[in-house]
Amino acid sequence: MLILGIETSCDETGLALYDSERGLLAHALHSQIALHAEYGGVVPELASRDHVRKILPLLRGIFQQANVKPRSVDGVAYTRGPGLIGALLVGATIGRSLAWTWKVPAMGIHHMEGHLLAPMLESDPPDFPFVALLVSGGHSLLVRVDGIGRYQIIGESVDDAAGEAFDKTAKLLGLPYPGGPALAKLAEQGDPGRFRFPRPMTDRPGCDFSFSGLKTAAINTWRKLEPTSENRADVARAFEDAVVDTLVIKCRRALQATGLQRLVVAGGVGANRQLREQLRNLAAESGGAVYYPRLEFCTDNGAMIAYAGWRRLAAGQGENTAIEVTPRWPLDSLPPVD
Ligand code: KG4
Ligand code: ZN
After folding, report:
1. Crossing angle, helix 273-285 and helix 179-187, to 10 degrees?
2. β-pairing, 2-7 with 12-19?
3. Residues 69-103 pLDDT 10s
4. What is the pTM of this model?
5. Which ligand ends up closest to the CA of 267?
6. 7 and 297 in contact (C-beta within 8 Å)?
7. How high is the pLDDT of residue 318?
8. How far is C-alpha 251 from the geometric centre of its chain's CA atoms?
9. pLDDT at site 322
10. Is any atom of ligand 1 closer than 6 Å to the C-beta of 93?
11. Beta strand pairing status for 140-147 and 2-7?
12. Ligand 1 pocket residue status of 5, Cβ below 6 Å
């Protein structure tokens, strides 16, 4: 079964062709970072317009790369939500129109389901059940995953998402958009012993997160200092250490509470090198295993949407609806597959 995957939920246009026999045949991504950089964050209307400009050239590109004919596609998967409504509508409109033209089923995919299934594209995919830590710009979730669509949320952020906290703190430290990777890079030069910020909500039971206080702690410290690059790096380091430590503590708890040994980490913050290293240590200490998508599939991409689409379309779940998107969409409301 050959599936076309389309991702346009935010500031990346991602297209992919996934074949259930041969695996990933082609994928292409256009990032809008340069477009939004001068505004310090994503401007939704500019995002929608850029998806419109880029999606068809990228689409032609993946068919050439894979050397397959558009008519051999058996189904189309596009991100239906959560995300920016205008951006989502671009992918949904193209996806549904192509499916209608090709007379094949189409399926609107939950963006976070795409993220949590992304490690399935690797050569050593995890078996169910597992715990998934989903940390992106819009979400921080700990989910017990017993199968496709069998999701139980065991922890989530009560305020900012982890990526959002990285981005906002980076902006306040004067780093360019997108702040997360820039802050992480700067933190590598910081002194880990100089400042210590709280590990929010670790002093009470449960797996929920809160990151907005950490951002405030970082800013209050930074404002009292000379704005030197050394001071900036030290604050960045203390911030990153606090976020990573907190995520590791909550993952340990989630594994203990569920009795599971496999941990999947996905979403943009899953690209953070310190987080990856510490979670690998956590897995080693408990005799378990941690699974990541390759770095380029931690952040938004079309391949994860094509994969999720294949699993649902193969189970006969293609919808025959109008062009619809769901900008706010709880992950645990999806139907199971089997
Ligand atoms: O999953 P993603 O590409 O888009 C959303 O669905 O939100 O995640 C983007 C988020 C941004 O907040 C970005 O700053 C963060 O992931 N991010 C990182 C790193 N790389 C990306 N945060 C910390 N360290 C990184 N290396
Ligand atoms: Zn994402």
Report:
1. 70
2. antiparallel
3. 999 999 999 999 999 999 999 999 999 999 999 99
4. 0.95
5. 1
6. no
7. 87
8. 17
9. 86
10. no
11. unpaired
12. no
In this prediction, residue 29 carries a pLDDT of 98
**How many Å lie between the centroid of ligand 1 and the Cα of residue 299?**
6
Pure H helices in 224-269: 229-258
DSSP 72: G
Cα–ligand 1 centroid distance for 267 (angstroms): 7
Asked if 8 and 327 touch (Cβ cutoff 8 Å), the reply is no
Tokens of 5: 């995957």
* Neighbouring C-alpha atoms within 13 Å toward the C-beta of 77: 31
Q: Domains in the chain, start-ordered, CATH in brackets?
A: 2-117+297-333 (3.30.420.40), 126-292 (3.30.420.40)
pLDDT tens, position by position, 133-162: 999 999 999 999 999 999 999 999 999 999
Q: Is 272 in the pocket of ligand 1 (CB under 6 A)?
A: yes
Distance CA 327, CA 67 (A): 34
- Please identify every stretch of the chain with a pLDDT value under 50, giving residue numbers as ranges: none
Return all residues near 330 (Cβ < 8 A) that are at least 6 apart. none
Residue in the structure block whose two tokens are 């995300």 = 83
Question: What single-letter amino acid sits at 161?
Answer: A
User: What is the distance in A from the centroid of ligand 2 to the CA of 297?
Assistant: 10
Check: CB of residue 179 under 8 Å from CB of residue 257: no
Q: What value does the mean pLDDT of the chain take?
A: 96
* Burial class for 49, CB neighbours closer than 10 Å (0-12, 13-18, 19+): middle
CA 267 to centroid of ligand 2, rounded, Å: 6
Three-class SS state of 73:
coil
- pLDDT given at position 321: 79
Closest ligand (CA of 169) = 1
Pocket probe for ligand 1: among 11, 167, 269, the residue whose CB has the most ligand atoms within 8 Å is 269
Residue 224's pLDDT is 97
* Residue the block writes with tokens 């990153």: 240
82 preceded by a cis bond (ω within 30 of 0): yes
